[in-house]
Amino acid sequence: MEKLQQAATIFLFLSLISFLANLSTAAAATSRAVFVFGDSTVDVGNSNFLSDAPKANLPPYGVDYPGRIPTGRFSNGFLGVDFVAKAAGLRRSPQPFLSLDPNARHGRRGVNFASAGSGVLDTTGRYVVRMTQQIQYFSTFAGNLTAAKGARSAATFLNKSLFCVSVGSNDLFARSATLIPGNSTQKDEIVAAVLRQFADQLRSLYELGARKFSVAGTGQIGCVPGVRRVVPGNACSQELNDLSLRYKTGTRALLEQLGMELEGFRYSFSDSFEIGSHIQSDPKKYGFTELAAACCGSGRLNAEGRCTPNSTYCGDRNQYFFWDEVHPTQAMYRLGARLSIYGPRQFAYPVNIHNLLKN
């Protein structure tokens, strides 16, 4: 009975999306901005400006984006953060920081600092804008804002703004090669090391004026096609999923701690692990028929080679969970965003993004 009630609740939320999405932008507080930090799950094009960084600026990336443009998003279309920005009252996502004129980096509606391949730790990723540097860029932005508007107006502006953070998966992937199967102590040590620096980064953003945080937990990283292809039977890696589960649990606990420690710190934690697990438990309910293989790529599960202009790609992209060997399709990003924005506490804790923005 409880499961039926839960399913009914989720169905109701999804049924209301069309209505909620068409509410007037005035009700969504149009004066706010959105600032984005993290990795390829939220990078809308910064990687295009880094010579040796991972890139998604060639077809068929963007095949379902307006104009079929490969923007640098690691998807066939939009990312989850694009749908969040719209829910926050923006007509489009904030532009990538590296695309802006150095003399005009004031982004009244926000800026996207995310960089594909980056992680929480400075040792994660090469040829990327690391989280430490992303926050330094924002510090410069905040200083310019204060100089232009005055301390009080700048603080009010930033207090209203939404700070979206999606990072951590690359840190876990980078350290997965050293995992000893079944070694819980080792997993906890990895998680603790990453969370220590993540805590400092969130505090730094708070000190710079951030108050409203939308933080995404890590998902089922053991189920991405690039991992499945090396697991017998194309199954998920339970070791990697266990590591990710520990990290997302630690992230949620960290946010609870910061909420008690820092005055005015408010947050919505998007439980990507729970969202992915829920959808994969009954994929056909949400229109998905392929969970293991990537839509675009080559070889086993389309995950042995990267998605390139020479790759074949599926025509029924709305039925695929994954676009390439690691990243979700637009359809999955859209559904995940809806559950994060309007969903129940099972998916967005302690409040969803919609309610966070209303405060």
Structure commentary:
The chain has 359 residues and is α/β, with parallel strands linked by helices. It is built from twelve helices and ten strands. It has helices at 2-15, 17-21, 80-87, 131-149, 151-160, 169-176, 184-207, 225-228, 238-261, 272-281, 330-342, 353-358, and strands at 34-38, 110-112, 162-166, 212-216, 266-270, 290-294, 296-297, 312-313, 320-322, 348-349. The strands form three sheets. It has a six-stranded mixed sheet. Helix 3 (80-87) links the parallel strand 1 and strand 2 (110-112). Helix 3 (80-87) packs parallel to helix 11 and helix 4 (131-149) crosses helix 5. The longest helix has 24 residues, at 184-207. The two termini are 33 Å apart.
Describe, in short, the structure shown.
This protein has 359 residues and is α/β, with parallel strands linked by helices. The chain contains twelve helices and ten strands.
Considering DSSP H and I runs of 4 or more, what fraction of the residues is helical?
40-55%
Count all strands and give the number: 10
For the biggest sheet, the summary is: 6 strands, mixed
Strand composition percent: 5-15%
Mean pLDDT: 91
How would you write the strand order of the largest sheet? 2-1-3-4-5-10
Order of helices and strands: HHEHEHHEHHEHHEHEEEEHEH
Based on CA atoms alone, the radius of gyration comes out at 19 Å
DSSP summary: helix tally: 12
Compute the separation of the termini in Å: 33 Å
Global structural class:
alpha/beta
Low-confidence segments: 1-5, 7-30
Shape: globular
